[in-house]
Design a protein that fits this description.
Largest sheet: 7 strands, mixed
Structural class: alpha+beta
Shape: globular
Helix content: 10-25%
Radius of gyration: 15 Å
Number of helices: 4
Number of strands: 9
Length: about 200
């Protein structure tokens, strides 16, 4: 995979921004039995406009290009089931110490023919901002973990929570992968990968 896809300069610049400077045990997400349905409904309503990816770009979400696919999953500490994550649109301006259920750091799109369909969102917290496990929607975030190469540098340790708001997920709404999402086979920007390396909670190493 071409090295320019790593987006390291963009993400490291994001971590060095004044917003982040103010805020300066492996775990799986979304396994809590209690779900905050009201928060989910607010998030879905607020993000409906991003079904148009151009609207997302206008609001500061930029494509990481690669369609991330995890065909074998990982049964160990990550507990990641086989499935895809799709194409991530990252908003560096939304990364910071405060989580907003209506403003995710990442929007997730599935390539379908010549279109991009909004299927989910991801809330993202670098450990450089907080080394405490966050939660939203009544669910704990996964992590801490390394960054998902090639779309971010491995050094970007973080917690995250995927929420499949617009496409049913047989693995569960909060699973990091969705077997109902497909990356184009043999496409130039389809990246088939293994899961990120999990870290000990509280580790910034």
């Amino acid at each position: 995979m071409p090295r320019p896809l790593r987006l390291a300069p963009l993400l490291l610049l994001c971590l060095a921004s004044p917003v982040l400077a103010q805020g300066s045990m492996a775990g799986m997400p979304g396994m809590n039995s209690t779900v905050d349905t009201a928060q989910l409904n607010r998030a879905r309503a607020a993000l409906e406009k991003y079904r148009d990816p151009i609207a997302a770009v206008r609001d500061g979400y930029f494509s990481t290009v690669a369609c991330m696919d995890f065909p074998t999953g990982e049964p160990g500490a990550m507990g990641m089931r086989p499935g895809a994550m799709g194409v991530h649109f990252l908003n560096p301006g939304a990364v910071g110490p405060n989580l907003d259920p209506t403003r995710p750091q990442v929007l997730v799109y599935e390539p379908v023919h010549d279109t991009l369909r909004l299927v989910g969102a991801e809330w993202f917290m670098p450990t450089q901002v907080s080394n405490q496990r966050p939660s939203l929607f009544g669910q704990d975030f996964a992590g801490p973990m390394e960054g998902h190469e090639p779309i971010m540098p491995a050094e970007l340790h973080h917690y995250d929570l995927h929420v499949w708001l617009w496409k049913d997920n047989p693995n569960g709404m909060f699973s990091p992968t969705n077997p109902a999402v497909h990356c184009p086979a043999n496409a130039r920007y389809t990246v088939r990968s293994g899961p990120p390396h999990m870290l000990q909670q509280g580790s910034n190493e």
